[in-house]
User: Fold these one by one.
Assistant:
Number 1:
Amino acid sequence: MNNKVVAMLLAGGQGSRLKSLTYTIAKPALPFGGKYRIIDFPLSNCTNSGIETVGVLTQYQPHVLHSYIGLGTPWDLDRRNGGVTMLPPYAEIDGNKWYAGTASAIYQNITFLQSCDPEYVLILSGDHIYKMDYEVLVDYHKAHEADVTISVLEVPWEEASRFGIINVDENMKVLEFDEKPENPKSNLASMGVYIFTWKKLKEYLEADNLNEESSHDFGHDILPAMMDNGDKMIAYPFKGYWKDVGTVDSFWEANMDLLDLNSGLNLHDSGWRIYSSNPQLPPQVINKTGNVQSSMVNEGCVISGDVTKSIIFQKVVIEEGAVISESVIMSGVTIHKGAKLHRVIVPPQFEVPEGFEVVDQQDKVVLLTDEEVEKWKERGER
Amino acid sequence: MEGAWRTMNLLAVVDASIKKEGLQDLTMQRTVSSVPFAGRYRLIDFTLSNLVNSGVSTVGVFPSYPLASLLDHIGVGKSWDLDRRKNGLYFLPVTQRDGGISSVGAFAGLEEHLQFFTKSSQPYVIVTNSFIVTQLDYKDMFEKHIKSGADFTEAISKGVQLKTYILSKELLIELIQTYQDKQVVSVEDVVNLKKSPYTFNEYEYKGYFAVIDSIQSYFEASMDLLNEDKREQLFLENRPIFTKVKDEPPTRYVSGSHVERALIANGSTIVGDVIDSLISRGVYIKKGARVENCIIMQKSTVEENCDLAYVIADKDVYIGEGVVLHGTPERPIVLRKGANVTKEDIR
């Protein structure tokens, strides 16, 4: 029997709630955790789970993603058979095929999927931070002889109305699928990770394509249709760290979670590495005047200031007298003397002027922009 | 000869077979060329990077034994972009000889790979080593060599021989075929003897360099890198030092850590105190430990409440709880690769 699993990674998201961070790059390409990009997580999960064929579906600002993923070498996906294939939208004889929804994106790559001849298709999202063994999910799907298995996790009850909520019976069979319910009946949220038996999925994709009423989305169209027809839909309870970094606040929180040894997001676990591109940079330098506490620092940095509870990407220079706390400083940033940053996200290549301050924002997270710096200068503070 | 100095006309011999008795503690299981340096590099990285940064793309590496660690490190030369369809990196091991010859570019070894020279198209050869750390620009040196019209050009810095030579391939092949009659053993030998009838030219290199031939020189050169001025001469933005990359996460500084003047590679976890030291990839410095004037190599662990000064801990060393080890600047204590040191061992 063919047991081949092909992963289809949806990486076209714009991530508009991340504001200027995603003006020029797709959300999955967003830098995270000192050296990674968000898409490193699902890609590494594939590699670590033994999934060797991965299609990456791109749409919004795909350039950085395409050049970053390249042949897939950092994730060991540069293979003669399978490996990674970039799947941007394309034109056909009867017009352009822009990806209208998650389901249409998969439907438009049906030729690719057929050429892979899979038994199962794993649908992943390129904008979540988590470590998950998909092989366990596949085994679970097989053991339940399901048509589709949805990975779910327990979220705090008070937050349940923000998610797609799944109601199940005692055998984890899905009874109901509630998109952002006002009064949730359970706290099991869909992670946007689905595994389908390919034969079944193909039928639904073809039918959905012909349905002019459809928004061509898994959550809104495909899964409800399968439910209505009585196909076997099972929930897989995932236990572990998972975060949708959709907003500036959740992006900041997920970075801070890396510093909490109990958060479940340990990057120093050699048994489940997160692979990424590795630039050729010298080790980091902590100078005599430098002080680093409860932080993560990447290669190529020179730290002469004070850093507490922060994530520092590569090639960051923090000058003497600068004080950084609970912040995310992206690659190539220079923070000049005496600058004070508390709960700030500094985008790549930014130059923070001498004496610039962002402190005490009533615990709000500030995404630093050129306008912010201009306003500070106009106020005559320097 | 218009453009003769272009480095595409240059073939490189990296003599990675030189043994240094003074480095024995670090070379029990590896060649001098694969001794770890500066937190994430191996000594040969500096030579290979200088070659590719100078535009040399055909490189023959002549290793000594045991060569597993060097082979594992350089592989097919991917990290230096030397994994090419045309030209690229050639790994050219020579028959193991007792004692060996300790001068650069030994003809006996080159003779075993005569085809490497006869088959390649480049008319000039650079013969260099992998125990001197520099930012040598081979392109500039080659240009000066062609202008001088001499048979040999030797790189010199502040009166120190950098054991790097340029000569024509024709001359090198002639020497390989006749060295026994001429009673010379190596390119270095020919240059040092100023053997007639050849003419010799010197190329003055002005940048940073360190000759790594003993534990003392290794320690000093390592500590040099804590000096910003020296570090900036070695790590240049437009001439990067390439090495085999590893998927290590950024280094984690846990609450209570204290770091003062240190060079630290990725993948490490620092809980204790690190002062005036170099820490390689994947090192764990635990709570209450104090590491001062030390070099701690890849994947070593310093347990709680250790007190180390002037210690070089090689790869995979485990230093048990409460161990106190104090060397001196002149005689740092070397813990060999894989060593396991406990309080009981020291008593």
Note: Chain A has a mean pLDDT of 94.
Number 2:
Amino acid sequence: MSNPLVLIGRAATYLALSLAAFVSVFPFVWMVIAATNTSPDIIKGKATPGGALFANIGTFLNSVDLPRVLFNSFFIAGVGTALTLLVSSLAGYGFEMFRSRFREKLFGGLLLMLSIPFAALMIPLFVMMANLKLINTYQAIILPTVAWVFIIFYFRQATKAFPHELRDAARIDGLKEWQIFLFVYMPVMRSTYAAATIIVFMMHWNNYLWPLIVLQTNEMFTLTLAVAALSAGYTPDFGLVMVGAIVATLPTLVIFFLLQRRFVEGMLGAVK
Amino acid sequence: MPALVLLGIFMIYPILWSLWMSFQVGRGMAFSFGGLTNIIRLTQDPVFLRALSNTLIFLAIQVPIMLVLALLFASALNDSKLWGRGFFRTAIFLPCVTSLVAYSVIFKSMFAGDGIINQVLLGLHIVSTPIPWLADPFWAKFVVVAAITWRWTGYNMIFYLAAMQNIDRSIYEAARIDGVPAWARFWYITVPMLKPVILFTAVISTIGTLQLFDEPNLLTQGGPSDSTLTLSMYIYNLSFRFMPSFGYAATVSYVIVVLVAILSYIQFLVARDRRA
């Protein structure tokens, strides 16, 4: 059974995985340790906890209007995620459930759009938002991401596994299409929604380039932009920035751990 | 189909519009039709050529490393007898949920001149003088590549893992009984079975790398001396940092579109060839 070659292979596998896990997790540990040290100590690479945590938190709260910035981030990411999931899953559902002559052509066109870089759309979108007088508003951030090609694609793949009989049964029971979507499809696909929620929330929460362009006053800044502003320059105060980094990371981390089990199930469904 | 209407408004219209823009010249909001002026300007613009070569270097180095790592980790974690599977999976996926800004700050401090990475390397006597990570053109590129790999390997790994769960176990059992060694099972069973997913992640990563903006902008601001400037950053600079030159910026955008189209096409061809 266990010849030496297999044993060496096993050891190498564990070694490689442990190394990868260490490399993956270390920056998080470093972030927490660094938040307790002063900026000069952090740059010197001090790897032990220090006593500057409360001073750093104090400076952070003084330099950032935390409640305001948190509200902006949660509002944009929350509303954005809900709308993106609703609209994009509806599109994915539609693509799989309704047959029409143009379906495949339309879908092919969608996939092509996925390849067009955001950089190419940035300027037209900016001018469009300026013409609509939406610069520096929540709508300007959220609207362009509501119909998200990647998520539509993801939901279409996942819908292939949705039993058609269930829909037919619901139709015979006299449910309208929107009721089927809301009360049959959405509950059945909740794992898919969980996985998509993590991805979409993450993207909204961490979005940087587009808000950087569209949001122009400090009151509208998201947490991401506020922390980025603190860390700009050659010698930022790393202590306070680390506190910001922790605050910025926590929400996505919590959501990931809450939805983790469903997340893996949901990904499974999508790749089938 | 409200989604299609929204897509129309927020995707198709800007796409057509920027295509039209790419043939306009002028500063700020004053345009006139310039024909091929912008395209000619591209070939003579040293900054553009710099950004283009940087972007292609990132692409050629980072995407293969990341996808191979992701594939190897996924295949190791797919072994049901492996101890601590859940732990490793979560740990390796973890970087992907960090806020981008948070991780650039962390990397910036870790790779500081006398930061922790240099301390460790000095302590282990791997290097004798600290490496100027962010001040040297070569090492700055290295840090950007390391940062992106750190962040996205776990993400791709999850796609592979999910796809591997769908491969019928009995194929592996049969191969094992026939005495096929582990590397051959990986190369002749796992890789071919995962081809569609590998193609998908390759295309997505290619698109992502060609549009690279956030990491270099936060880590190095494109420096030192434009050594980490990417196409997306150049477009941003052209449109919002310097005197706005939207038309020319749109032309640079379409360079990315053309690149994505060509590379995706090549990737599709390669995938089809292997199948035959």
Note: The two ends of chain B are 39 Å apart (CA to CA).
Number 3:
Amino acid sequence: MTAVQLTPQDTVERGLALAAAEGADDCVVLVAETSSTNLRWANNTLTTNGAMRGSSVTVIATVGSGEGTAAGVIGRSSVTEDTLREIVSAAIATARAAGPAEDARPLVDGTASADWALEPEETTVGVYEKFAPSLGESLKRAAAEKRRLYGFANHEVVTLYVGSSTGLRLRQALPRGYVSSTGKNDAHSAWVGTATRDFTDVDALSLDTELTRRLGWAGRTVSVDAGRHPTILPPAAVADLMTYLYWQLDGRDAFEGQTVFSKSGGGTRIGDTLSSQPVNLHSDPALAGLEAFAFAVARSSGGSSSVFDNGLTLTATDWIRGGKLEHLMTSRYTADLIDVPTATPGIENYVLSVDGATGTTDDLVAGLDNGLLLTCLWYIRVVEPQTLLLTGLTRDGVYLVENGEVTGAVNNFRFNESPVDLLARFTAAGATVPSFSREWGDYFSRTATPPLLIPDYNMSSVSQAS
Amino acid sequence: MPDIDAAFLALPRQELAAAALHRARDLGATFAEFRLERIRSESISLRDSVLESAKDDEDLGLAVRVIHDGTWGFAAGVALTVDEAVVLAEQAVNMAQVSRPINAETIELADEPVYDDVTWISSYEIDPFSVPRAEKVALLTDYSDRVLKADGVAHVSVHVATIHECKYYANSAGTSYTQQRVRIGPTITAHGVAEDRFDSMSSTAPPAGRGWEYMTGTGWNWDDELAQIPGWLAEKLAAPSVEAGTYDVVVDPSNLWLTIHESIGHATELDRALGYEANYAGTSFATLDQLGTLKYGSPVMHVTGDRTAENGLSTVGFDDEGVAGQQWDLVKDGILVGYQVDRRMAKKNEDVLGTPRSNGCAYADSSGHIPIQRMANVSLQPAADGPSTEELISRVRNGIYIVGDKSWSIDMQRYNFQFTGQRFYKITDGKLDGQLRDVAYQATTTDFWGSMEAVGGPQTYVLGGALNCGKAEPSQSGAVSHGCPSALFRGVRILNTTQEAGR
């Protein structure tokens, strides 16, 4: 093979030069270098593991001017000097064959990151230097105690480079890791999960200790019928539900009457009070510990994103403030369409908080006379977009709370609930803490949520799963 | 019959494979396999007949998996060089060595025949990537216009995904193959707004292992469906809300495929039954000790696993462990009789399974991922001389006919499920009696399949499916088809979703 692999910076510079030479009016080149390593275990033994490197290059060429501009988008996983020319040519040809894009806007003006010249960051199996031995110990301990452990640890670093013909030279490297672990004994199961940036703060033995504590709660088993029950949702379960709400904040879909944030008769519900409680849903790429990409990245255009917005600076945004819907996600195009003053693209983190709320899940348990404590939720899907009614199930730990204490394990349930309604109905909340959604955490892990007490959570039927 | 893409054949497949496999052997691997994969994908979206997004991607990379000292090791990369292939082999062996202390189980694989440099291509006519983008957009704009111009349609969204997958596989036992597959997944959705609510109506054309010919009428009647969508939407917006209760239901294949996928397809994956998915998607109630005895459903229930069905999304010549495609029984006369397995599971459980062979269910969604046990096309077989859908409906006095898929969810052991659909028709005295809205059905898997009184004949059989079934950690996306006839179920719980929302 004589193909020459390019550095990300070379890919950007040569791609932009080729685009200019071949007649593109403007161009954006996105390069994402990904490095990841993982461990997976089941039945107290390692099952699979891997180390992967990935690279993706996206060329967005534009032709025309103003609102008559068309875009062509071509992506490839591996680019050499030779193939880059083909990609750029294909992107330009695609743009020329396309009609004007309705979301066309001038490309974002250029700024340059101070670390633009740095190489991509990498992770290796060495990230588990402390974690792997403690995992090995926990697997042995579980086997000796006739418990079974199942789980997954993943660490990745994504280094993103964005360059444009308008001068953008942005680079950002983001590490992300998480552990999800399930413990089982003969009759019950329990789950713990946590997000991390580098695994220095994750100890498998500590996670196993918490699993053991939860399995211990199952010393007594109680059958509870379906129905509406007072239910404590810990931060992980709140994240399970609120991530779905977050993904429904698309401004165009709402404007066109397709989501829970659509106003009856037309338009959006921006300005409507969703909750009488002082609830806030906030995103900020600079949130300590939950850092996200600080600029917009769009490989395709959609309701709240636009390929013309690549590199747009993302700023702290209140989606819900004081219970009132403040913003929906928009590109510059959809901001104009729905008549809001500024574009608010999506940000890959959020914090849900309740003003003045303090305390932990355990504190909520201490204040509950009779009800349920969940661990996490699973297989959550939209049943009705109009109310954002979701269905899903409890799993790996539902507990009975009596007189302020966990007194036993309860069967699993299917629920039908809307997270928007839950924000209007909860009666107590705790302090917001970093959380890890059981269902969505592998994809969207930068969340912080409080525990909530719902007075009448709708358990639609009993699930036999255990 | 199309040819294997010449550009893929021009890649140094054998050279890279030889370098990786030799290096793995030199480092002491007892088994090694190499994959070179190129996956081209195109996604075109229109909104109200205007092109919103069109994106063309290509994922090209190589992977090495080894068994070293009885432990798996895996590594993947993107540079198509001998040096990279060698480095990946070294990384894979290193990964196995690092993992060895926490591996309590020696990996052994079922023996399989060796296939030397064979070729397989899926059944399609027109490579979607050979059709000019403008031609594709023009067709989709026409389809969109037809729906959008109808009264009562506020918005229309169109999305078409196409995938062209080329793979070269070689292992240290001597098997090597080159394989090419094409698949396509179109959805057209009309949105409507009534005075106090909104709703949508989507096409029921399933994704298929076909080429662009699918969009122009081969395998699906678009003219007919597009003409009817606006009327279906208008009727749904005006329909009365269902009264929750217990009903007899006739389920159309456009809905039943998804119930099969969730409650049979995933439940008969042996890796789940053995606990390998316990931390993620969950296990299965259909445990190995119940093979041959578990009453899964009524005696009319016959379900097969199939890697050979024409136009199936999970149809292959060979899986990602070099095993040839096969067909076998999973449920026969209502009894659990088989599982979906890979080579490791086949070897470990051959005494219980009654066979030492894998049935070819190992698959990775790209070169960047490890092959895992993956679903074959799992299909409910029709009755040879079975009734038509109309005849099934005629057997119902007070019930519901369910068409098209929408919302789906099932628990972590595949017991409790809830599904909605696109259209729900009230059945009164054996005849359709207009649409209902706010309908969901909820059941326990064995109760539901046990209540299946009759399956339709071959004339009702449709191959449904999905492009994006998620499984494993790290998560992988798989495509799979499910064929089924219409079927009649007695006494199914029907929910009113508005009431479930507390309104």
Note: The longest strand of chain B covers residues 50-68.
